[in-house]
Structures are given as C-alpha cells and as structure tokens.
Amino acid sequence: MSIHLQKALQTYKSGNYKKTITLLSPVLRQPGVPTEALLMAAQCHFKTQQFPEAAEYYGRAAAMRTGKEAGILRTLAAKMRSRAGQTREALAAARDAARSYGFDSDAEEGYRRILQVSLCLDEAEQAHAEFLAGMQAGNTALFDIEAVFDHITWCGDEAINARITRVQNGKPFTAEAHAARRARPHRWGEKIRIGYLSNDFADQHATMRLFQGVILAHDREKFDVTLFCYTPSDLIALDKGMRRQYPGLVPIGHLDDQAAEKRIRNQGIDILVDLKGHTKGARIDLVNRGLAPVQVAYLGYPGTGRGIDCDYALTDPIVTPDSSKPYYHEKLCRMPESYQSNDGRFRELPPPASRESLGLPEDRIVFASFNAHRKITPATASLWVRILEATGDSILWIMCTDTFAQENFVHYLQSRGIAAERIRFAASTAYGEHVARLQAADIGLDTFPYNGHTTTSDKLWAGLPVATKKGSNFASRVSESLLNALGVPELVAADDDQYVRLCIDLAKDHEKRAAIRQKIVDNRFSAPLFDTERFTRHLELAYEMMAERAKAGLEPDHLDVPALPPRAEPFGSNPT
After folding, report:
1. Residue 55 contacts by C-beta under 8 Å, 6 or more apart in sequence?
2. Where are the alpha helices (DSSP H) in 392-487?
3. Using alpha carbons only, how large is the chain's radius of gyration in Å?
4. HEC assignment per residue over 300-365
C-alpha cells in the first residue's frame, strides 16, 4: 500500500472524508488504481453527499471485479445515480446489476424500484408479470425483496401484499414483545391520553393537510393530545404558521429509541397512534418497544403494517371490507364514512387559475393526473391510452419532472398512436397554486392499483371530478372511499371497461360533466368528506371503543364505529 493510500486510510478512519478525497487524488490519477482506493473514494463522496462522483468510483471498482462482487458494486453505483437524480444512468446500472451477475436480492430491488420511476412501461409490464408469476409459484425469496410501499405501487393482490416479509427502517416485532406490552401494568386517567407519532408535523406536508384540523378539533375535556415529533428542520422551515397552533408538541428527533421510549412512557400514553407505517422516516423500532397499552396504525401507509406492533388499523368498510380481515395482523377499526381525515377548516381554496396562464388550450378536454408518477403502472397507462384514443384531441396533464421518465412516457404513448403534443407535464408547486390549477382541468384520472390518496382529495376539494374504479386492496380502494364520502358514487366504475366508458362519457357530455362538478362543489361543505369536526367525533368514538376494551382486560377485536346522525345544515360555505 502506497504512502498516499496509507495516509488516506488513516484519515478516512478518523471521519474526515473531505480531506481523504484530497489525499486520494494523486492515487486516483495513476494507472492501475487499487480497488481499495476506488472504494474509499466512493464512500467518501457518498458520506459527503456527492452522489454522481460516488457512482463513478463504484462503477470503476465494479469493472475491476467479477461475479457477485461486481454486481454488488454496480448496484451501489445505481443507487448513487438514483440519489443524484440521474435516472437514465441509474436504470442502466441497475439493469446490468440485476441481469448480468446472477440473482441478488439487493440488485433486484434496486432495478425494480428504479424501473418503476423511469416509466419504462413495456419493460415494467414484463418484469412485473415475471415477478408476480414467481410469487404465485411460491418463490419465497421474492417476498423479501421489495419494500412494501414499492410493492403495492404495482401489485393490487391483497393476499400477495400480506406475504411481503421485508421490513424497512426496523426489525419486525416478536410475539413475546407484543405480549409483554399488552401485559404491562397501566393506569388509566379520567381523560384518554392520545399520543401521535410522526415526522410530518408541519403544515406544508400532505399528511398535515389532511390531519391538522383533527389535531386542533379534539375535545380537550375528554382527551389529552400529545404530538411526539421528529419532523426534520427543513420541513419545519416551510411551515406557514399552523405548526405553532398544534397542541402538545414534544420533540424527540434528537433522541435515540431508548431515550424516546422513556420520554413517551413518562407521558402515560393510553393510545399511541403511529402516523407513518412503512413510509419514509418511520421509527418502527421505537413503536416496537411497546409505548402504550393500545397502539394504532393510521393514515401513513395504506395496508397492513407488516412487522409493526399495532393492535388496530384505522380503516373504513370500503378500503377494508370483511374479505380484507385475514390479511391484517391488526384488528380493523372501521370509520363509518371514510378512513381519511380531511382538513376543511384551514385548507386553501383559491380562485381557479386560467388555462392561458397554465399554457393549456381553452377549447380541448383536459384530463389531469397529479399523482406521483411512480404510480403510473402499465395497467394505468393502457387505460389512459384507450381514453385518449376515443376523445379526439384531448390533453393529458400529469405531474412529472424527470426528463428520462418524460421521454419514456411520451415514447410509450406515441407507440400507441397518441401524439406527443397531447401530453403536458407539470411540476410541483405551492399548495394554493396547485388547487388553483386543478380547477382548470375537466376530469381527474386515477392510477391503479395505487390510487390518488391526498391527491384525490385535493382534486375533489378543488371541485374537479375524479373518475376511478373498484379496487382489490386498500391502496386501490381509496378513491372510491373518498368519492362515496363526498356523495358522488357515480364516479366509481365497476371494472376497466366501465372506467374507460365513464371517462369518455364525461369528456363528451358537457352537461353531465358540469352537473357532477356542481354537485361536488355543492357537497364540499355538506357531505362528510371535508367535515373535520364530524370526522374528529367519529375518531374519538373509535378511541373510546378501543379504551373500553383495554380497560376491561379484553383483547383487541374488529370494531365498526357507528355514524353520527347526518348534519342538518352545512358546516361551511363556498367562496363567492
């Protein structure tokens, strides 16, 4: 080992990654660079978040290795390219890693994840079919590859979903730990003490756009509410002022799991509600330390929380009919109208943006889908093609800023006879501007099997009709739940063919479209969907039902929350 390399290694071990890069520079410029130097350089660039450079060095190291080791390094290069937003290069590296060096679960996971966000839809269709066939044939290794959140993006089979064994962000709970939590002595007070656990407590996060009204509407005479917050500082910096109104904020982001457990236990929480599930930043190991006698999964993840020690999942009869019960380790606590909370008090509702300001034609039907573009599966795209084929010169307006994904999506549609000029791409924008632009569209298109969730409620809040179809798991039934709660079940089709006909009919029948649009606006402040107070009372009743069983020493069981009487008067009014 050269002197330069020895010094670099010592500096690397001290944690000074930038200086290590400097020391490695002369070594990396020499012919015959040792693999150790390339890997050290890759790690240093990764540690300092210089992802393209990290990818370059992992790729060079891979070229010097063979077999499984080369595949591992190519997978790391693909991950770095993905982190850098270089989707084209990431997919090439991931494809090579997954297909050239024998089967490797990490390589397969990286390839499938990057493939989905790349919108290489023909390739994805074949990959999904082969993967699903292997699962159906009982290949157990395939159930431990994808994160569940990625898996449900393309697979709507509830029985398959429930068999996924991979748990990100933590280790699965054990039966012994679950039993110990349930047996731990607990003192109940006069009020029910609710603890919400999340890293999304800021008003510009989608979860809080749904839930912050509930936090503020809780009955303080009956409930003590604490928000156990590990929200990152960059998200808090975007908050426009609502966070200051949130009650009982207790920061735990600076605490490890053991200290956070102690902090939460000191509050004597009766019911701990995990708002994350399997989404980004979930603290599964913390939840699994057993923080409360009753633990509840809600809102973050649309499905069973595999490996997360929750007693109940808060759902509704549409997203989880009785047939879903065998696929959940949690007991279902079903809300009477929709599982999804919605903030009808503080949500922005600006006037509509003009089509001219958005670069949209005035005289053509505009279909809009602002769901995350990773949700555009081959099944979704094939339905959209049928709709576009039958609706003349209509426009498809979607949210996607990745150039590689845009190119692939346009190519897919062009190969099926849809002109590129009919596709319009949009970027993310401030929430008020987003609601304003939604009102410029004619019809909202859904994605399958992972529907729009917050995205669908945003469209409905804006008064935009959203067409969907019946689904086969939680994620694919959400839009149906929301449309029913808003009183427009006529926008739910029974199957693919009926969905296509529904969208075509709405595009061609102006009077029908206008009538549904007016119905959505009329129902905005009278139907249950955006009635925050009503939802909160139902949620509190759910907590009371859970607490009653726990106080009586009864095990959790499936619960159906009874509905309050319908409102006699609107709970708000539309802007004039």
Report:
1. 42, 77, 78, 80, 81, 84, 86, 89, 93
2. 403-414, 431-438, 454-461, 474-485
3. 25
4. CCCCCCCCCCCCEEEECCCCCCHHHHHHCCCEEEECCCCCCCCCCCCCCCCCCCCHHHHCCCCCCC
Q: What is the identity of the amino acid at 423?
A: I
* Euclidean distance between the first and the last CA atom of the chain, given in angstroms as a whole number: 76
On whether the CB atoms of residues 204 and 431 are closer than 8 A, the answer is yes
- The amino acid present at 557, given as its one-letter code, is D
Write out the chain's pLDDT in tens, 576 residues: 578 799 999 999 999 999 999 999 999 998 899 999 999 999 999 999 999 999 999 999 999 999 999 999 999 999 999 999 999 999 999 999 999 999 999 999 999 999 999 999 999 999 999 999 999 999 999 999 999 999 999 999 999 999 999 998 899 999 999 999 999 999 999 999 999 999 999 999 999 999 999 999 999 999 999 999 999 999 999 999 999 999 999 999 999 999 999 999 999 999 999 999 999 999 999 999 999 999 999 999 999 999 999 999 999 999 999 999 999 999 999 999 999 999 999 999 999 999 999 999 999 999 999 999 999 999 999 999 999 999 999 999 999 999 999 999 999 999 999 999 999 999 999 999 999 999 999 999 999 999 999 999 999 999 999 999 999 999 999 999 999 999 999 999 999 999 999 999 999 999 999 999 999 999 999 999 999 999 999 999 999 999 999 999 999 999 999 999 999 999 999 987
Counting Cβ atoms within 10 Å, is residue 6 exposed (0-12), middle (13-18) or buried (19+)?
exposed
d(CA 42, CA 28): 11
Of residues 293, 335, 299, the one with CA closest to residue 311: 293
DSSP for 395-407 reads EEEEE---HHHHH
d(CA 207, CA 211): 6
Comparing CA positions, the residue from 558, 556, 542 lying closest to residue 181 is 556
Instruction: Of 86, 9, 67, give the one whose Cα is nearest residue 43.
Output: 9
Query: Tokens for 46?
Result: 């990764």
Helix (H) or strand (E) segment spanning residue 424:
strand 423-426
From the list 263, 264, 262, 256, the residue with the least C-alpha distance to 285 is 256
- Of 326, 279, 332, give the one whose Cα is nearest residue 310: 332
- Cβ neighbours of residue 122 closer than 8 Å, sequence gap 6 or more: 378, 412
Of 546, 562, 551, 555, nearest to 297 by C-alpha is 546
The SS3 of residue 134 is helix
Q: What is the largest CA-CA distance in the chain?
A: 83
**Omega within 30 of 0 (cis) for the link into 378:** no
Q: Contact at 8 Å (CB) between 310 and 297?
A: yes
d(CA 282, CA 198): 8
